[in-house]
Amino acid sequence: MNPNEPIPARDEPAAAAAGQPHDLAVAAAAAAAPPEGAADAAAAPDAGLQLSELQAKLAGMSDAYLRAKAETENVRRRAEEEMAKARKFAVEGFAESLLPVCDSLEAAIAQQHSDKPATPEQMLEGVHATLRQLLAALERNKVLPINPPLGTKFDPHQHQAMSMVPAEQEPNTIAMVLQKGYLIADRVLRPALVMVAAPK
Question: Coil, strand or helix: which one is 178?
């Protein structure tokens, strides 16, 4: 080919045909793309539905919270009422068990003021019977005596030593009980007053 020869002009239809595939692809992509704003319009109903669901869920949770709060308040109020009743009537059973003791003492006093008073022996028998009633009432209410036998090892948790005395027994053991002590439900209500054997 002679470099001096002019380049023939391109045939227009051929040029158009050569560029046709690219133009078709652009046109097809443009046709496939949704119009502007269509995606936002499609997403709007989904967002509204989600908002409604969340609002319904929030309302349900708020209702459940209010119900739980009210129930908690009711439980707390009932517990406070029960505690107040327990404090007020805590000694009811104990007092009821002491009523027969009061009856026995009143009967003994009335007997002495009657036309035929009791003899000293009868009075002593009545005192013993009343004491048995009292001890039974205390025992029913878990109030038990601390009355250690002589020779028992001194226990500072249940005994109170008044003094140490010479004795023919092991040192640091009970030599004499001056006054009984009492337990209430395994707790010392009053320690026993005792004399303790001194070291030899």
Answer: strand
Q: Where do the domains of the chain lie, and which CATH numbers do they carry?
A: 143-200 (2.30.22.10)
Residue with tokens 């692809």: 25
Nearest Cα to 154, choosing from 195, 188, 185?
A: 195
Q: Which residues make Cβ contacts (< 8 Å) with residue 170, sequence separation at least 6?
A: 151, 153, 197
Closest CA to 190 of 199, 182, 180: 182
pTM of the model as a whole: 0.58
Q: What does the pLDDT profile of the chain (200 residues) look like in tens digits?
A: 455 555 555 444 444 444 455 555 555 555 555 555 555 555 566 888 888 889 989 999 999 999 999 999 999 999 999 998 888 888 888 899 999 999 999 999 998 888 888 898 999 999 999 999 999 999 999 999 999 999 999 999 999 999 999 988 999 999 999 999 999 988 999 999 999 999 87
What H or E segment, with its residue span, contains residue 20?
helix 20-32
Q: Pull the structure tokens for residue 85.
A: 């009743």
* Residue 191 · residue 145 · CB < 8 Å: no
